[in-house]
Design a protein that fits this description.
The chain has 742 residues and is an alpha+beta fold. The protein has 15 helices and 37 strands. InterPro entries: ARM-like, ARM-type_fold, PFU, PFU_sf, PUL_dom, WD40/YVTN_repeat-like_dom_sf, WD40_PAC1, WD40_repeat_CS.
């Protein structure tokens, strides 16, 4: 039998463990007791076998205490101190906690690391932890007893060998073997960060690396085997007494290996952060979609056909959403209906989706039609050596450190992209101030070698509708007019805040709901399970923007949001307002909400409530953005005009706020009002808005984005006055001609 002809039963899905609200980062197998998992949602969950269905697990404990995402875990077997066992956890918050599973409470808080804790392991009665601060620390009975700088770069993992030594893996690409604080050997062979470590029963040490490989080492430092098959970072590795090895990777696969050969790949709808063998040989995987999956070779434990089919469908949809053509996500491309909109300049290119393909069209200005260019395909070398982010290949994926203890953020970029457009969209996605725009653009240009970048003069700023500013270049105009034309004025169309972190919104609502449940005096305000499900359904509709033309809301959906706005404590309503902000951008959602507003003006009630001092900043920001989004739908124009004075007065305090996002939202509100009131020929309203815009423009210390929008509002209002002057001048000329002809 050759090495490829291995007698092996295929792993199949056994069950899915749902409960975490963000990426699942770590798995700890707790003997036969169950499984512990850690997550970016700051929690640890303990899962026990479901007594009613032995194929499945249920969440029996939730451990709360970390202030940032939780990573490594270790199991304390039951003893006198921990009758039901215990858990050791390490987090981004630099803390190591010890938990008693019987009570679900913290019994020790180990403080000493300066940066993220990346590994925890039991050594007799001691705990040894590793950290990005380059140190290993030994803790005994809650107190630090040893600490040493083990590597010159961040330590990513630590394990204990059966023989008693410790092994650490580091960003410096090495492994080190320790007896006490003495380094016995340094293992070199990887070409990038060593991310995960495991003991290979009876053979040696396994290491997983950012270089995409898994290595098996003898304790002497000799490389016994190299396993290559993943196409991206390998985060974790584990082994079973049967000789099987499992690894988890950024490439969305958990791979199973035997004798150095990959014998099965388990595909996931996201990054696989961790993979562990259970004692019986089943495999648990932790995925970035927040779900833990158990895989088995036991046919009696395989999930039922309905669940298997549902998972296959989920994978198919996920892969379709990540499919790209010419560096563009297929799912993000508009359909053929986009060709009904005329182009703005001769030769303008537009790519639309036709079936499973992207097809390029060019605007023919003379014939006023779109000419088909052809199908967009990736070049032969496009997929080679290009980094992947969210399942899509890019020319570059930069690590951006914004400081303040925040995690490193990924910035994807293609050389064909406009860096200003990329910067704007990325800042909005990451919820960062647009004032960082120039810094991000310069960062992109510097790191891509595009020193002589030329801005396309047809580029339209997605936030102002204006062209990119090119120093020393004339303003770009199309067409000729007898009257003067200007680059930014008069402003046409409304600006909205249409980006939302829906998962974060739902997570925050869930946190607040748990708080209400725990408070006997406010328990009746909490959401029921059906209401939580309905809230999830609302968000699902809002996420699916491609079906806004056909999806609908029920009256009870909007009624639920309004009920929460009215009844929940003031400090807890900002995530609800944020859902409302996005709902008004949905055609049917806006219509259903309007019916409620016409009966009982809950929106004005909300504005009054959130702007009454002392105001909660988060309430102010979400509510002013929500009101700004009302301008998207013309059915609200009458309501906005009617309440103009009350709305502007209520939010006027935002100008004095040090919060840059609040300042920008207020300026956007003013700009939208200027467009509306010019259209409605409301002179009194125009005067009010002009006064407010001038007040913004006079603020010297205001962010440039906020002042710019105020100036566009002023220019648009003044342009309206000029139009009146031109009209009167033309009228006098006509009257003069009429008199001279008599």
């Amino acid at each position: 039998m050759s090495s490829m002809e291995i007698d092996f039963k295929q792993y199949q899905l056994r069950c899915q463990l749902r409960g975490h609200e963000d990426d699942v980062r770590g798995i700890c197998v707790c003997g036969s007791e169950g499984i512990a998992t850690s997550s970016r949602d700051r929690t640890i969950r303990f899962w026990s076998l479901d007594s009613s269905d032995k194929r499945k697990y249920v969440s029996s404990k939730i451990l709360l205490g970390h202030s940032s995402f939780v990573g490594p875990l270790a199991w304390i077997s039951p003893d006198e101190e921990f009758p039901e066992g215990g858990i050791v956890s390490g987090g981004m918050d630099t803390m190591v906690f010890v938990w008693d599973l019987r009570t679900g409470e913290k019994v020790q808080s180990l403080k000493g690391h300066q940066l993220q804790v990346t590994g925890v392991v039991l050594d007799g009665g001691d705990i040894v932890s590793s950290s990005v601060d380059c140190t290993l620390k030994r803790w005994r009975k809650g107190q630090p007893v040893e600490s040493w700088e083990a590597h010159n770069s961040a330590i990513q993992a630590v394990i204990k060998l059966p023989s008693g030594e410790l092994v650490s893996g580091s960003t410096d690409t090495t492994l080190k073997l320790w007896r006490g604080k003495t380094c016995l050997h340094t293992f070199t062979g990887h070409t990038d960060t060593v991310r995960g470590l495991a003991v290979m029963h009876g053979l040696g040490i396994l290491s997983a690396s950012h270089d995409g490989s898994i290595m098996l080492w003898a304790q002497s430092g000799e490389v016994l085997m190299v396993m290559v098959g993943h196409t991206s970072i390998v985060y974790s590795v584990d082994s079973h007494v049967s000789g099987l090895i499992v690894s988890g990777s950024e490439d969305h696969f958990a791979k199973i290996w035997k004798d150095g050969v990959c014998i099965q790949s388990l595909e996931h709808p996201g990054c696989v952060w961790d993979a562990k063998f259970l004692e019986n040989g089943d495999i648990a995987t932790a995925c970035s979609d927040g779900i833990i999956r158990i895989w088995t070779v036991d046919q009696g434990k395989v999930a039922d056909p309905v669940e298997l089919e549902a998972y296959a469908s989920e994978l198919s949809e996920y892969k379709l959403s990540r499919k790209s053509v010419g560096g563009l996500k297929l799912v993000d491309l508009p359909g053929l209906e986009a060709l009904q909109i005329p182009g703005t300049s001769d030769g303008q290119t537009k790519i639309v989706r036709e079936g499973d393909n992207g097809v390029a069209y060019s605007w023919n200005m003379r014939e006023q039609k779109w000419d088909k260019i052809g199908e967009v395909v990736d070049g032969p070398d496009d997929s080679m050596n290009r980094p992947v982010f969210d399942g899509v290949q890019y020319d570059y994926v930069f690590d951006v450190d914004i400081g303040d203890g925040e995690p490193i953020r990924k910035l994807p970029y293609n050389r064909s992209d406009n860096p200003y457009d990329t910067a704007d969209k990325w800042l909005l996605k990451e919820n960062l101030p647009l004032s960082y725009r120039q810094q991000i653009v310069e960062f992109i240009l510097q790191n891509t070698g595009q020193k002589d970048f030329n801005i396309d003069p047809t580029f339209r700023d997605p936030y102002t509708g204006a062209n990119a500013y090119v120093p020393g270049q004339p303003s770009y105009t199309s067409g000729i007019s007898a009257k003067p034309t200007f680059k930014h004025i008069p402003k046409r169309g409304m600006l909205v805040f249409d980006a939302a972190q829906f998962d974060g919104i739902l997570k925050k609502i869930s946190e607040f709901n748990s708080t209400l449940l725990a408070d006997l005096g406010k328990k009746d305000l909490s959401l029921t399970e059906p209401e939580i499900s309905r809230l999830g359904a609302i968000v699902k509709i809002l996420k699916d923007t491609s079906h806004y033309h056909s999806s609908t809301f029920a009256d009870v959906d909007i009624a639920l949001l309004l009920k929460m706005l009215k009844s929940w404590p003031l400090a807890m309503i900002f995530p609800v307002i944020d859902i409302l902000r996005m709902t008004v951008l949905h055609p049917d959602g806006a219509t259903v909400l309007l019916r409620h507003v016409e009966v009982n003006d809950v929106v004005m009630e909300m504005i009054t409530k959130v702007t009454t001092e002392p105001a909660v900043p988060a309430n102010l920001l979400t509510s002013i953005r929500a009101v700004t989004n009302f301008f998207k739908n013309s059915t609200y124009y009458g309501w906005l005009q009617k309440h103009r004075s009350d709305i502007l007065d209520a939010f006027s305090s935002c100008l004095a706020s040090p919060n840059k996002n609040l300042q920008l939202a207020y300026s956007t509100l003013i700009l939208n009002y200027s467009v509306l009131l010019i259209e409605r020929k409301d002179e009194e309203g125009q005067s009010h808005v002009l006064s407010a815009a001038l007040e913004i423009a006079e603020q010297e210390n205001l962010e440039v984005d906020s002042r710019f929008r105020a100036l566009v509002a002023i220019g648009s209002l003044m342009h309206e006055e000029l139009k009146q002057v031109w009209f009167l001048q033309d009228k006098r000329r006509v009257e003069t001609l009429d008199r001279s002809s008599v």
